[in-house]
Amino acid sequence: MRVVIAGGHGQIALRLTKLLAAGGHEAVGLVRNPAHEADIADAGGTAAVLDLEKADLAAVAEVLAGADVAIFSAGAGPGSGNDRKDTVDRGAAALFAEAAERAGVRRHIQVGSMGADRVDELDPDDGFTIYLRAKKAAEDDLRGRDLDWTILRPGALTNDPGTGLVLIADKTGRGSVTRDDVAAVLAGLCETPASIGRTLELIAGETPIAAALSNL
């Protein structure tokens, strides 16, 4: 299985790359900084240097050609300005999804954000609200595309060691989840047809990941 990951140098993406490589799969991480290629190689993957804020559709589709799964895990980051929250969290996500359509990559997984469904209730001028609005716009865009999509909304992320125990559901309520466990769930979603066409929330729980995915 060939999996192309947008935001390939992110903390979750590098964990995911290690899991995929350990499972005998090919992981390709999209990065805009050539200095990050070595980290992706150390994780067992291959880097493709491409800036999703500047690349055209054809260039992104070329990288996606031949992939079995496309995963969007990029983000502008908490220190970014409001403009980049739009160009990355919305614009780059939409470009990546459109390129997947063009390249014929049907399976598409997008990492969203818990709270995107209640953005209209929040202070419109707050930086986090602007981030959530961009995430919601990216989700709305993806739902309208001819792809076998899944949107995964993790809870508050931690760097604690993964437990392998989670709660995955259409609605989970608030909670936290380790980046290790998010990566493991993303790896499992690649081969979970029952998740197609669903927006799923993810927090720590009491169910082993494999069982949680099989119960969807």
UniProtKB/TrEMBL annotation:
Name the domain of life this protein comes from: Bacteria
InterPro entries according to UniProt: NAD(P)-bd_dom, NAD(P)-bd_dom_sf
Identify the residues that the record assigns to the NAD(P)-binding domain, covering every copy.
7-192
Q: Which PANTHER family does the entry mention?
A: FLAVIN REDUCTASE-RELATED, UPF0659 PROTEIN YMR090W
Q: What is this protein called?
A: SDR family oxidoreductase
Q: Which organism is it from?
A: Kribbella qitaiheensis
